[in-house]
Structure formats: structure tokens, C-alpha cells
Amino acid sequence: NNTDEHNVRYNSAIAMIAKEDLVNTVSILIDEYYFNDDVIFFLSRLLWQINKPLCHNRMVSIATDCNRGLYARIGAIRAIMTTASDEQKISLWQELNTTLTTFPLRLLAEIIRDATFNEQSVTHLLTSLSQLETYKEFDTSGLAEGLATFISKASQKKLDECEGELIFLLNGFHALITKPPFFEQTDIIISK
Question: Which residues of 56-190 form beta strands (DSSP E)?
């Protein structure tokens, strides 16, 4: 995956060609190149730029397949989370929580960025966090920003509409950070 900003796969270049009249072509190409992760990464980004719920089942199967490349899975998740219904988003999250023994940081970051702040999402978030892969120092995942975005959605509601979810989330965070094993630095008493 070439990340050179002048490459055609760069998001702004994709946005320039992402037009609704490409929907049928994209669908055909996803079927034809289903096993090519680089092509799927490009096509899934095209899908979320077009912003049409398309090839949902194909995208879910890519997102939940641990044998697929990380970027193909990220693209599939982004396409789902930006175009699917809340029920479809929750279904994807539930399937990932059920099938993964270790939840990749970057996949969770993609999911929570576009998740609705509600009791179901908070429950799935806490489950995902309990299965999270080990943090690697200096490795950027976008998870902190995704969490901030997710939690900020609560401030868009009235307090009495989300108070229960916020309390549940805080209690869940507390349970996670006070669970052994702990980091072995004397000034840190937090769960690994």
C-alpha cells in the first residue's frame, strides 16, 4: 500500500472520481477482485466516498476475515460504518467481538468513529476494549481520537438522555484499568 500523497489511491483523488454513476461498476469490480486486498482497499474507500450502502455482505465478510490484510479490513469497516444502518453497524461490531480473540486497535478506531453513542455501542466498546491487542509504543492507531469522537457524541444529547450510558461507560473504563496485570512502573497503577 503506497501512501505517497500523489498516488491515485490517496483519499482526495478518490473523492474526485467518486460519483454515484460508478455504483454498478464498483459492485462488479468488488466481486471480480474480491481476493485482492489492494484493490478492495481502493474500492472500499471509493464506496464510502460515494456514500451508498453497497456490497454490504461482501464488506462484512472482508472486515471480519482475520486472514485479510489490515488495510482491506479498515476500508471495508469504513465503508460499512459510513453507509450502513445503525442495526448493520451494531451487527458488524457484535460479529467482530464474537470472532476475534484479539481486537486490532486500528479496526476499533474505525468502528467507534462512526458509531452511534448508545447503550449497545457502549457495551460493544467495553467488550472490544477488553479484547484489545497490546499497545505498541509510538504506534499510531487513531484509537484515542476515535474514543474522543465517540464520547463527544454524548454531549450532543441532553444529559438525561445519555446519563445512564455515560455512567456505564465510566464504570466499564474503571473496571478495565483496575484489572491485573499492571504496568510495573512505580508511578503507574493501571492495567496493561
Answer: none
